[in-house]
């Protein structure tokens, strides 16, 4: 049934170029919103579910989902994602700030703006160095935490209009950070135009996005959900920025979030070797054709089947199974595969804002990480597989006592 819909041309317009030649290459069915965790009182209520399909634009080659859920539903009240719960992410962010302070000679006269500044996890490094910093984030919980630690934050969405307002107030940025947000905004062009408007003439926008190549190659289909509207290649990004007289001059591959890119975007064109090489590499891969994406759906189906079969086998042998990480991607994984309470007893997560709630859809209860050693389940499905090294180190006790981890992607395996 699923495959009938594949490669069908949809009537949507491309989020980047506006073209209408979109071809769907993956259909994950209808899923709930991954960061809408349920409280006790929500358990008997129905949840919103939306179709989750990914399409390729034949005109600008951007991979994108076809459904747009209102950002007010996705990000505003009760948004449970707080960046500061991962020490690896904090370290990654600190190094980024220190590098830019040195490379750009930033000082007290400089201004750094972050779009989607969350709980201040990145900007606090600039504040500590005496550099002016302004965060912009629509999620009130994380924004309040940022203010508390001294990071000035406007609790709102970043748009082209907000860029105009800030510009009128005299704000122009030496550095604009935008990590894991470009793929989240429905008005992709407005967001990029806003960046162009807020940059100083010699300023730089430093943007991190998950990279579509590892997503496809390592079968990271669980990173697909309604918050992620776009799945970027350098080819698609280069076209997007040029439309706004911005130039993708430098890139740096990052291992974070299953494989990301840090993009250095400026008003002046001086495209470096890394970008040129990557564009050539993507052309060689065929990323500007649907062929590159064509067999992804079948590979995802194999992974889903294998993981479900593994969990069912372990359960039928009498093993107990829990999960680690009430991650957004975990919600896609359990809901698209159908991993429910019959297989998983509970999920643990360090984030106190998630504990005591339930994963959307399958409604697995979320507990603190201490529950792992207390309950000592035989297996733990690692939903936050992108932090595997960090989490395995941290859970050395559980492992030493005979507990085993199941890593779901790229191929389900037991550690
Ligand atoms: P994590 C996030 O997705 C948020 P998620 C967002 N959707 C996005 O765009 C991507 O990143 C890129 C917990 N944890 O960060 C914290 C521990 O409990 O991989 C998180 O709940 N102990 C905006 O949610 C979850 O796991 C730990 O030691 O898929 C990880 O979620 C660590 C390291 C994490 O991404
Ligand atoms: Zn397009």
UniProtKB/TrEMBL annotation:
Keyword Iron attributed: no
Any GO molecular function: methyltransferase activity
Source organism phylogeny: Bacteria, Pseudomonadati, Pseudomonadota, Alphaproteobacteria, Hyphomicrobiales
Methyltransferase putative zinc binding domain mapped to chain residues: 14-75
Annotated C-methyltransferase domain residues: 256-410
Superkingdom field: Bacteria
Any one GO BP annotation for this protein: methylation
Name listed for the protein in its UniProt record: Class I SAM-dependent methyltransferase
Pfam families assigned: Methyltransf_13 (PF08421), Methyltransf_14 (PF08484), Methyltransf_23 (PF13489)
Gene3D superfamilies for the chain: 6.10.250.3100, Methyltransferase, zinc-binding domain, NAD(P)-binding Rossmann-like Domain, Vaccinia Virus protein VP39
Keywords attached to this entry: Methyltransferase, Plasmid, Transferase
Species whose genome carries this gene: Sinorhizobium kummerowiae
């Amino acid at each position: 049934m699923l495959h009938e819909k594949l490669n069908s041309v949809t009537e949507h317009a491309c989020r980047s170029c506006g073209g209408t030649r979109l071809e769907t290459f993956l259909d994950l069915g209808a899923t709930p919103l991954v960061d809408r965790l349920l409280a006790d009182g929500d358990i008997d209520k129905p949840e919103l579910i939306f179709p989750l399909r990914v399409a390729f634009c034949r005109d600008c080659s951007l991979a994108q989902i076809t459904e747009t859920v209102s950002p007010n539903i996705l990000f505003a009240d009760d948004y449970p994602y707080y960046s500061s719960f991962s020490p690896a992410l904090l370290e990654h962010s600190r190094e980024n700030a220190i590098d830019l302070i040195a490379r750009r000679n930033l000082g007290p006269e400089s201004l750094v703006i972050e779009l989607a500044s969350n709980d201040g996890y990145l900007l606090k490094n600039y504040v500590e160095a005496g550099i002016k910093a302004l965060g912009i984030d629509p999620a009130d919980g994380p924004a309040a935490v940022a203010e508390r630690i001294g990071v000035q934050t406007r609790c709102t969405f970043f748009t082209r209009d907000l860029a105009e307002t800030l510009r009128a107030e005299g704000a122009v940025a030496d550095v604009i950070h935008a990590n894991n947000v470009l793929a989240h905004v429905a008005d992709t062009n407005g967001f990029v135009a806003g960046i162009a408007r807020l940059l100083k003439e010699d300023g730089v926008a430093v943007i991190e996005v998950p990279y579509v190549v590892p997503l496809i190659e390592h079968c990271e289909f669980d990173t697909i959900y309604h918050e992620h509207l776009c799945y970027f290649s350098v080819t698609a990004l280069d076209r997007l920025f040029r439309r706004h007289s911005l130039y993708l001059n430098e890139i740096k591959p990052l291992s974070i979030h299953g494989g990301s890119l840090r993009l250095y975007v400026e008003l002046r064109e001086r495209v470096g070797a890394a970008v040129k090489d990557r564009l050539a590499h993507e052309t060689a891969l065929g990323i500007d054709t649907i062929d590159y994406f064509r067999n992804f759906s079948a590979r995802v189906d194999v992974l889903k089947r294998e993981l479900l079969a593994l969990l069912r086998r372990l359960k039928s042998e009498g093993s107990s199974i829990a999960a680690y990480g009430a991650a957004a991607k975990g919600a896609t994984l359990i809901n698209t595969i159908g991993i429910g309470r019959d297989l998983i007893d509970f999920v643990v997560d360090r984030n106190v804002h998630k504990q005591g709630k339930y994963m959307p859809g399958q409604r697995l209860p979320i507990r603190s990480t201490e529950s792992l050693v207390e309950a000592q389940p035989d297996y733990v499905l690692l939903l936050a597989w992108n932090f595997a090294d960090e989490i395995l180190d941290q859970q050395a006790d559980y492992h030493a006592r005979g507990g085993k981890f199941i890593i779901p992607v790229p191929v389900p395996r037991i550690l």
